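Late entry, evening session. Most of the bench is empty. Finally got around to the prediction I had been postponing all week. Sequence below, unchanged from the version circulated by S.P.
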Amino acid sequence: MKVGFIGAGNMASAMIGGMLQKGLLQKEDIIASSATQKTADRVAQEFGIRTTLDNKEVAKAEIVILAIKPIYCEGVIREIRDQIGENQIVVTIVAGRSLQWLSDTFGKPVKLIRTMPNTPALVGEAVTALCPGELVSEEELEEVCSLFRGFGKAEVVGEHLMDAVVAVSGSSPAYVFMFIEAMADAAVAEGMPRVQAYQFAAQSVLGSAKMVLETGKHPGELKDMVCSPAGTTIAGVCKLEEKGFRSSVMECMKACADKSRNM
């Protein structure tokens, strides 16, 4: 097997789906393990890949992706470390676990790549940060980057930025969903049907994000384009400032980064 996933939850499923859809891998190239037979059966049926309950079986793959929660990381590494050889690559999507921590836990030289994708991988719009260990070659890093581009964008960053990445992209979809929900709730309060309110709010966020990415303009400049003198938008902006909107977002992200830093 070329790529093995230890963990077969939502993120792993999104990654598998993206890699297969883009033709980066064939079904027979992938194996995934899960903690329950129910999940293994679901993933096998959905993607046609081989699944197992045995993490050691997955650890035979050329590229082993640890798609697990931080609390399980140490136990899984201790379980599979004897199976991992010097020519394999171990990729983690685990928040708050540094390359040094991973290396120490394996207890031997291992080719490690630390990553942080996000849940928009489910719709092919993830953004993933990748940070390679010193034993990983440029060719190996590019191979892994190409796999992650199967479900969105991928960029290499220094490890000192990984906690910021957790805050600005790894966890931020939750903040955006809360914003969409709040806007929709307000629209419902104004009489708009619930389904329609979600569509208007979500599409506005999508379109605004595309304007930032495609125009190259500063977000503040784009905001100013919407704010007519003495108009409705600037009245709303004033209320957001009064309630500490921007400072709340920044404090939220700081708390997230601090948690990642101290896990």
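Two things to note before I forget:
The mean pLDDT is 95.
Strands lie at 3-6, 30-33, 50-52, 63-66, 89-92, 111-116, 126-132, 152-156.
Will write this up properly tomorrow.
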